[in-house]
Automatic annotation (TrEMBL):
Any one Pfam family match given in the protein's UniProt record, by short name: ECH_1
Family that this chain belongs to: Belongs to the enoyl-CoA hydratase/isomerase family.
Domain of life: Bacteria
InterPro entries in the record: ClpP/crotonase-like_dom_sf, Enoyl-CoA_hydra/iso, Enoyl-CoA_hydra_C, Enoyl-CoA_Hydratase/Isomerase
Lineage: Bacteria, Pseudomonadati, Pseudomonadota, Betaproteobacteria, Burkholderiales
Protein name per UniProt: Enoyl-CoA hydratase/isomerase family protein
Amino acid sequence: MAGQVRVESWTAGEDAADAQAVRVVLAHPGKRNAMSRAMWRQLRSVFEELQLRPGLRCIVLQGEGEAFCAGGDISEYADFRFHPESLAAFHEGEVWPALHAMLQCDVPLVAAIEGACMGAGVELASCCDSRLAADTAQFGAPIAKLGFPMAPREAALVLSEVGPAKTRQMLLEAAVFGADQMQASGFLSQVLPAAQLQAELARTVARICGLAPQAARMTKQLLRALADGDAQAPVLQQPYAYADSAEHREGIAAFVAKRSPQF
């Protein structure tokens, strides 16, 4: 089995959130959800579809079982890694388009991380807006043991989210870090006992789903444009176009009336 990326309904006892959120599950039994080539292609398709799904307010990314993602599926590597052309096709034609689809998704993304988060797992988590982890989770990118560096655009992504010191240690020392260390460096939003992770995840999703969805999408567009230095992005060219929107009016009216907004 080459593994799969599944989209599942979000069910956590919160009626509103159940209708407005989904889980994206990385599933590769027996390989701690290591990413196969098929899974990279599926991931791209999944996020391109979710970007266009109306009414969606939150996406949760998690692994099936006891691991988030243990890296790439090394059993496939001999088929393509030893020729520059096929290696470039893998990283630039499969891995990066999937990561790019996640980065371009305007729906808030929450990573729920348990167990191993290695290599590709760190890259996937780096695409998310919020990262919650069990205190038993472990993080690293020990590919120096396999004799190769990280691909350029993937390295830039990890560097921007993990930070220079931890990235250098991961890549140059094959260092593996615990969840507390990754939280201290700013990579993780929260670290919780494993038994409490799902409950806190449910609360996080409910909070996101209760907030203004169009404002969230515009915020993601804004932050992306600022990070990319894209002065021509519509959100920077017309930053106040939302002024007469129903969502804007409802938020202000609800605050003045001292009631909860209905977004």
